[in-house]
Amino acid sequence: MEEEKYISDKLGRRNPFTVPEGYFEQLTTKVMEQIPERRQKARRVWLRPVWWAAAAVCALFVSTAAWLVIPNESQQPQGHVAEVIQQSQPDDAFFDEAADYMMLDNQDIYACLASAEY
Amino acid sequence: MLLNPETQRQGFEAAVRQYGEQLYWQVRKIVLTHDDADDVVQNAFLKAWNALDSFEGDSKVFTWLSRIAINEALDLLRKNKRRMTVSEDEYSVASSLLADPYFDGTETEALLQEAITQLPDVQRTVFQLRYFDEMKYSDISQMLGTTEGSLKASYHIAVKKISEFFKLRD
Description:
The structure holds two protein chains of two kinds. Chain A is mainly α. Helices cover 69% and strands 0% of the residues of chain A. Chain A is elongated and about 85 Å long. Chain B is mostly helical. In chain B, helix 3 (61-83) crosses helix 7 and helix 6 (121-132) packs across helix 8 (148-169). Chain A binds chain B through residues 1, 3-4, 6-8, 10-20, 23-24, 27-28, 30-32, 34-38, 40-41, and chain B through 5, 8-9, 12-13, 16-17, 20-21, 24-25, 28-29, 32, 34, 38, 41-42, 45-46, 49, 52-53, 97, 102-106, 108-110, 112-113, 131-132, 134, 156, 159-160, 162-163, 166-167.
């Protein structure tokens, strides 16, 4: 490129900037002094029993709800049970209700499910 | 080492030691002053540490760090532009640099930096990486997340503008 040749002939490519003496020797130390210890591992350990307890209660709630909703082939649904079946909600809604009940939000559940430690 | 939680801190320190200087110079050419470059580099490493979980090893460590550092540098430029008063404009860049104890260049080199500051931020970054660091377009593309075609066009426009800047003064 002609213009690039014009600039490099006229100006060169030298780096005209400098740094205080010893700057780079100290840079690593300065940076590492500001780096906090990672705390995710401790947080996961603290939450683990809470999460398992919450997951167990959630599973109980969901399985009970599913048992009430899924029609039994040998029986005709009657009365209150028939009403529940007719008003049955999609599965996702049960999970949402369970999560709301347990006051867990989806991100916490997904984060625990996605954790490599489990 | 960076992907293993047990060796992350050691691995990160090794990366700072290995790439710190290179990253500093990339940033310095964008922000111009040593104090700003020092702040940007330290903030960039801190952000990189906090975002380590998002690094999946699918790019080179240096490319990943550069992306963070360059974004930090560009953020600083945008903040500085918003703070600039009416009396401060690009034409004082050369005189500021010549008065800077950490600028060792000639008046012509100071004018070159002034010409570069007149480019849009990303174009300026592309010019610095290509002209001074002679980086390959493929590497710049990974760093900035832009296509090689856009980068070539951007560089070509930057070179044209800078050569016109000097031809007007010849």
